[in-house]
Amino acid sequence: MSLDYTSLLLAVGFSAACLSLTLFGMWLTARSEKFLLTWAISLVFVVGDIFVYDAYIDMPGRLLGIATLAFLLLGFSTMLGAAYQFRTGGSPVPRTVLGSAISLAVTLPPMALGYDGLGFMFENAFAALLLFATAVEYWKGRDEAPALTIGITALYSATAASFALCAMVLALDGKLVLGHAPSNWAEELSLIIVIASMTGIGALSLALNQGRLARHHRHNALTDPLTGLLNRRALFDLHGDAPVGAFTAVVVFDLDNFKAINDEFGHAAGDEVLRVFARELASNRRPADVAARMGGEEFALVLKRTLPETVEATAEAIRAAFAAHRIETETGSLICTVSAGFAFGTKEGLGFDKVLNAADKALYDAKRGGRNRVTASPFRRAS
What we know:
By secondary structure, the chain is α/β, with parallel strands linked by helices. Helices cover 67% and strands 10% of the residues. It folds into two domains: 3-222, Rhopdopsin 7-helix transmembrane proteins (Up-down Bundle); 230-380, Reverse transcriptase/Diguanylate cyclase domain (Alpha-Beta Plaits, 2-Layer Sandwich). The chain has helices at 3-29, 34-58, 62-88, 93-112, 116-140, 146-173, 185-222, 232-239, 258-265, 267-283, 308-323, 352-368; strands spanning 230-231, 249-255, 290-295, 298-303, 326-329, 332-335, 338-344, 374-376. The strands form two sheets. It has a six-stranded mixed β-sheet with strand order 1-3-4-2-7-8. Helix 1 packs antiparallel against helix 2, helix 1 packs parallel to helix 7 and helix 3 runs parallel beside helix 5. The longest helix has 38 residues, at 185-222. The protein is elongated.
């Protein structure tokens, strides 16, 4: 082996170690992104492989050969698990265990029996397969951030191709026993590709994760944590600046006697009542309708391209379904009702806050009229 090859090898190890530390640091600041920890662990295996392989170059032997194969394939299998965890949020363990079990079961016996050439051939082949599988995971998740994930897919694929090339060169050479580390042009080319790809994958993945965290923070800022519906801020971000036309309606719901429920059954029961109503609201709306919790026990529903009869029927369906729901709590079962009021915009377009106020007035008319009912704004239009 030349000094240049050894330098390249150590450069890969140094790059992998730095990236692993960076990922671990990011995980410490964002514990919910568990794939960062899994990915960091996979790179620890890769770093271990680099140092063991460097020792194998100087002193070839079966134990070091087995160790270098094991470290690399465990690292790439864990990397596959991390990619799956990133895409789905699921556990990385099944893919990591499956990838490790199959690849090690095939590659370790030849190395243990002294057929190191065959062992390295299988190692490169399985490394290529695991990296291609990792690329596929990112390809499947490309909708999240197409440019970044396609870039990561391409770099993993290029790295996989370099390992496949190493396996092919060894196969063409036909030596089952080498007695030393593989030494050919494909090995050196593979190291260069790995260094370039690792740098690119690290940069793109960090950008991808930062974008995910930013979207996560924005989602939290616009979502009511108790019910999962949009919050008041999100509703006004969507509709606050746009004029409300004659075929757009706003329905405001308010749970009846909610304070009494909190006083009698406790706040935990009150929270469950709010969640139950939120589910009824979400399940009875059309895909294009927007539901939000305005605060406390007040909710809103915005319906576009609709008619008064449709809005009244929708609100009535929600009211009836909720009133028929017996809610089980730790302190007993209860039944709660809801009142609603709705209003439309105008042909000329009306401010969202004015339509909301008109729906609020209709809601209070429903409350004064005995609760557990739906009331329309006068002429079913905001004034």
